[in-house]
Amino acid sequence: MDRYLFQVMAVGDGYGGLEHRSSTSLLCKRDDLPKFGEKEPGDGYRQFLGLASHEYFHLWNVKRIRPKRLMQADLTREVYTGLLWAFEGITSYYDDLMLVRAGLIKRERYLELLARTATRVMRTSGRRLQSVAESSFDAWTKFYKQDENAPNAIVSYYAKGALVALALDLTLRERCAGVCTLDHVMRALWQEHGRTDQGVGESELERMVEQVSGLDLKAFFDLAVRGTGDLPLQELLATVGVGYRLRPARDTADQGGYSKPAGGEAGAPRSVLGGRCQAADGGARVTHVFDAGAAQAAGVAAGDLIIAIDEIRVCAENIDDLIAALGPEERVSMHLFRRDELLCLDFQPRIAPKDTCDLWLLDGVGGPVRKRREAWLGAL
Ligand SMILES: [Zn+2]
After folding, report:
1. Could you tell me which of 35, 204, 256, 336 has the fewest CB atoms within 10 Å of its CB?
2. Any idea what the CATH number is for the domain that residue 340 is in?
3. Are residues 258 and 275 in the same domain?
4. Distance, CA 286 to ligand 1 centroid (Å)?
5. Beta strands in 12-111 (DSSP E)
6. 33 C-alpha to center of ligand 1: Å?
7. Is pLDDT of 360 > 60?
8. Long-range contacts formed by 68-75: CB under 8 A, 24+ apart
9. What are the tens digits of pLDDT across the range 61-107?
């Protein structure tokens, strides 16, 4: 096209984007924009670039290469497709990948973003119940109607969809020896569906990946798209010379990132609540209770206002530190209000699960692994 317009509204606080056929509307924080003299994009600007890249990629993937089901949609009612994982997930995969390929961010900073996506998915136990195909299909009734049980019940077709796209790309790169990658699949989709404006049928994407690659990928799609098992990311990332590990979070701000393990495990085991709280008058308001966590075992429910643990007053700011100081076998009292009723529960913290992802560039990789890594991230 001759002209593509980025319409950016920079505000005090806000974030979001919407794709159009030849433009995008973006909302960002004023503070995210680059500061004078900044040599490398800071966290906020990197996120903004990722957003701009995401909406720009939609110019192809969803605005022109479109699901058949959305082509003649009846706009008076919901339209259902199981393909949102591909249209949003593949776009989410390419948004940050393009930043590193374009040389706007370093490889380490890209892997940090990827690790955080993996952490988000690993912290959603709903991934064991809902596949990305189901998450796509149920977007109207579940993803956009999230309640306090959402992390236990659903998975994001954006975040897990991006990991599925990564897994597919790395599978193709290894099994086709670099001759076919997800880039080739996207080009074929453009030729057959984008240029011609022929919608993509519900099973056509898989057929096309198999056609372009010459591989039988049924087992891959059964696991990654229709299944609820975890993706073999460790094995796949090793094929491009990237280390992967899961470890417990060090604190509540820890979302994983780029980090080479410095021998052994990451710190001592830490006791956690097994839920999420927000600040409230007089205590910590429980917003989420995670499946198989300590809070659930104690009988805590979303909406409860925790006021004391071990007879010490708590608030949203200190509750995690207070629990972290307890041993995992220690049984203490927990006072909370459920509506206007005071309850005293037996609470026994549990060790933080290994749900935090670290990625790093493996040292001393040579031959085909190095070649694949350079082809994937762009040789810098
Ligand atoms: Zn999108």
Report:
1. 35
2. 2.30.42.10
3. no
4. 30
5. 16-19, 23-29
6. 21
7. yes
8. 68/198, 68/199, 68/200, 68/201, 68/202, 68/204, 69/199, 69/202, 70/199, 71/199
9. 999 999 999 998 899 999 999 999 999 999 999 999 999 999 999 99
How far apart are the CA of 53 and the centre of ligand 1, in A?
Answer: 10
Distance CA 81, CA 133 (A): 8
Taking the centre of ligand 1 as the mean of its atom positions, its distance from the CA of residue 88, in whole angstroms, is 5
Question: Does one domain contain both 146 and 289?
Answer: no
| Same domain flag for 286 and 169 | no
Cα–Cα distance, 250 to 269 (Å, whole number)? 9
- Structural domain range at position 25: 1-31
Provide the domain count of the chain: 3
Tell me, in angstroms, the distance from the centre of ligand 1 to residue 379's CA.
27
pLDDT in tens, 182-216: 999 999 999 999 999 999 999 999 999 999 999 99
How many angstroms separate the alpha carbon of residue 54 from the centre of ligand 1? 6
Distance 72 CA to ligand 1 centre (A): 20
Q: What angle do CA 360, 61, 130 make, to 5 degrees?
A: 65
Please tell me the distance between residue 264's alpha carbon and the centre of ligand 1 in angstroms: 39
What's the rounded Cα separation, in Å, for the pair 298 and 312?
18
Distance CA 238, CA 234 (A): 6
Ligand 1: centre distance to CA 299 (Å): 38
Distance 168 CA to ligand 1 centre (A): 19
Q: Is residue 282 located within the same domain as residue 367?
A: no
